[in-house]
Amino acid sequence: TTLPRSIFLSSIEEGLKEAQGAVLSLKKINNVPMAMLSEMMIGFGKSLQGETLAKASLNYENFTEAKYWNTFQKSAPVFLAVYKRYKLQLLCLFNFHEQAFSLVRERTSWIEAFGGVDFSFRSDYYLYAGITCAALYCSVPEPEKQEMYLEILNECIVEHKLLSEHGEIKINFYAPYLILKAEKAKIENNPME
After folding, report:
1. Long-range contacts of range 76-83, CB-CB < 8 Å, 24 or more positions apart?
2. Buried b vs exposed e over 129-157: b needs ≥16 C-beta within 10 Å?
3. Which residue from 57, 61, 68, 89 has the fewest beta carbons nearer than 10 Å?
4. Which tens digit of pLDDT belongs to each residue from 6-59?
């Protein structure tokens, strides 16, 4: 099963409605893991609408991040990696970069969970990790921290460059590559051509 790159193909409202229907169907057939995954995605949509219990949270009346984490931490690393990607995305979107950095540090376990072969997942991770590190670079005066953030940003740029150079998939990864290059150019005060 491939998880879609975007959860909601039309609108957040329609996506939430479809996801809620999926949760009911999955619970009827007792597919608890997929129902929880769908509930987590509902939390993502609700967070974008400002309808969760806190900003950049996935928690709402039917779902808690803690329950999801406890359920999948040891038994399903792929489901946990999906949660971490959505959490990193939310933290990045709401500019909670310091909180997001703890997820960036775990980058190897994320990629390993998918065996490194889900290119969309890999791309999303490296995009949000790079944006997080670029934002943090600009917010700290300590040269050693800046160096660490720049090193991770460079890693993200290299990964996207590799993804954007191969075969038919390259078009999917060129825009994130340019976004990360622009972030680095902004840091270096060196406009891109």
Report:
1. 76/33, 77/109, 77/112, 77/113, 78/113, 78/114, 79/33, 79/36, 79/37, 80/113, 81/109, 81/110, 81/113, 81/114, 81/121, 82/3, 82/37, 82/40, 82/121, 83/40, 83/58
2. bbbbbbbbbeeeeeeeebebbbebbeebb
3. 61
4. 444 567 888 888 889 999 999 999 998 999 999 999 999 899 889 999 999 999
Structure tokens of 14? 């329609």
pLDDT of residue 78: 86
Phi and psi based region of residue 110 (left: phi greater than 0; alpha: psi -120 to 50; beta: remaining): alpha
